[in-house]
Specification:
- It is a single chain.
- By secondary structure, this protein is α/β, with parallel strands linked by helices.
- The chain folds into two domains: 149 residues, Nucleotidyltransferase, domain 5 (2-Layer Sandwich), CATH 3.30.420; 163 residues, ATPase, nucleotide binding domain (Nucleotidyltransferase, domain 5, 2-Layer Sandwich).
- The strands form three sheets. It has a six-stranded mixed β-sheet with strand order 3-4-2-1-5-8, sandwiched between helices.
- The chain is globular.
- The N and C termini lie close together (10 Å).
Length: 339
C-alpha cells in the first residue's frame, strides 16, 4: 500500500511517500523499516520520496493548501504512483486537533485554526473519496511512529513485551516542548483533542510566563530557548555578547566549562522531575526523546536513575531512548493514522 504523510510546521511543510507491504523485501534497503500493525501484523516499509516546501504562513491559509496539493502531485509523480493507488494521507499539525472533525483547535500556526484543511486539500488535490485522510498533533505523530516502528521495536527486543502491550511517552525537545502518549498502539487524543499537551503542564508554579497564558509551563524550561535563556542568566555580566546556542552549551559543558556544567545539571534535573511526574500519571514502559536537544548523548547519562527519584512507585527505572527514526518519524506517524 502507498501512504503520504505530511509534517506541517511553522517553517516547513514536508511530504513523504511511503510504501508498506507484509512481504519482506528481497534486498536490504537502506531506507527500509519495520512496523507493527494491530491486525495486519508486521509490515515492511520504505521511503519512496521526501519533498519539502517553506510554510510561509504570512501568505495565508489558501497558499498552504496549494503547497500541500502540489506536494502530493509531485510525490506521486516522483514515485510513479497514481492517486488512485493511494491508501491514505495523514497530516501532522502543530497544534491540538479535534478527533472528530480533524480541525486544528489551537496552535502557533494560527492561519490553520478552525480550517477544514483535509476537506480543502482533498478538493484541491483531487483526492478520491476512497483515500482515507486523517490529521493529528505532530508530537502525537512522532510518538506513534516511534512506538510502532522505532523505539517500541527496540524495547520489545530488550524486554520481550509486545508493542501492542506497551505504553510509551514521546517527548520532543526542540524549539518547543511537545509530547504524545501511545497506549497499546493508539495515541491518547482526549475528549477534545488536547491529550498529550505535556509541554503545557506546570513545572514551576508562578514561573516564567508562557504564550499559552499560564506561568511555569515545562516548555519554558525544557525547550532549546529555555536552556539558552538559563545560560544567559548565568552570564548576566556578558549580555552584550552573542547568546550561546543549546548545542554550544552542551559542548562547553563537555569541555568542563563551570557555568555550562551548572546549566546542563539544572536542565537535566528539571527534565528528570518532568519525566518523573509523567511516570506517576502514565506509568510508561519507556520514554523516547526527539528534537534537537535529544541528539546530545550526555542528556541520557543517569537520566533514568534521576527520574526514579521523582516517582511514587519504588524502583521506577524507566528507560529513556533516543529517537530511532530520525527525521522520518513525524511524517511516518502521520501516514500511519490512515491505517
Amino acid at each position: 500500500m502507498f501512504l503520504i504523510g505530511f509534517d506541517v510546521g511553522g517553517t516547513k511543510i514536508e511530504a513523504t511517500l511511503f510504501q508498506l507491504s507484509p512481504e519482506q523485501p528481497s534486498t536490504q534497503q537502506t531506507d527500509g523499516f519495520e512496523c507493527a500493525h494491530s491486525t495486519r501484523g508486521r509490515l515492511h516499509g520504505r521511503v519512496i520520496s521526501k519533498l519539502r516546501e517553506p510554510t510561509e504562513r504570512h501568505k495565508g491559509y489558501s497558499a498552504i493548501v496549494g503547497k500541500m496539493a502540489n506536494l502530493i502531485a509531485a510525490s506521486l509523480k516522483m514515485g510513479g504512483v497514481e492517486v488512485s493507488q493511494l491508501s491514505g494521507i495523514g497530516v501532522g499539525l502543530p497544534g491540538s486537533i479535534d478527533p472528530h472533525t480533524f480541525r486544528m483547535l489551537n496552535g502557533n500556526t494560527m492561519v490553520l485554526i478552525n480550517q477544514d484543511l483535509l476537506g480543502d486539500l482533498r478538493t484541491q488535490a483531487a483526492v478520491p473519496a476512497s483515500v482515507v485522510m486523517r490529521a493529528e498533533n505532530d508530537a502525537n505523530c512522532f510518538a506513534l511512529a516511534e512506538a510502532l516502528c522505532g523505539a517500541g521495536l527496540l524495547h520489545e527486543k530488550k524486554s520481550g513485551i509486545g508493542i501492542h502491550s506497551q505504553t510509551s511517552v514521546g517527548i520532543i525537545l526542540g524549539t518547543g516542548c511537545g509530547g504524545g502518549i501511545v497506549m497499546q498502539g493508539r495515541t491518547l487524543q482526549g475528549a477534545r483533542g488536547g491529550g498529550g499537551e505535556l509541554g503545557h503542564t506546570i513545572l514551576y508554579p508562578n514561573g516564567h510566563a508562557c504564550y499559552c497564558g499560564q506561568s511555569g509551563c515545562a516548555e519554558q524550561y525544557l525547550s532549546g530557548p529555555g536552556l539558552e535563556s538559563l545560560m544567559v542568566t548565568r552570564h548576566y555580566s556578558q549580555l552584550g555578547q552573542m547568546p550561546l546556542s543549546a548545542k554550544d552549551i552542551f559542548e562547553r559543558a563537555q569541555s568542563g566549562d563551570p557555568a555550562a556544567l551548572a546549566v546542563i545539571s539544572r536542565y537535566k534535573n528539571d527534565l528528570a522531575r518532568f519525566l518523573g511526574s509523567l511516570t506517576s500519571v502514565f506509568d510508561p514502559h519507556f520514554f523516547v526523546l526527539g528534537g534537537g536537544l535529544s541528539l546530545q548523548p550526555s542528556l541520557y547519562q543517569g537520566l533514568s536513575e534521576a527520574l526514579s527519584h521523582h516517582t511514587f512507585l519504588p524502583n521506577s527505572l524507566i528507560p529513556v531512548y533516543q529517537h530511532q527514526l530520525g527525521d522520518s518519524a513525524g511524517g511516518l506517524g502521520a501516514a500511519l493514522l490512515a491505517i
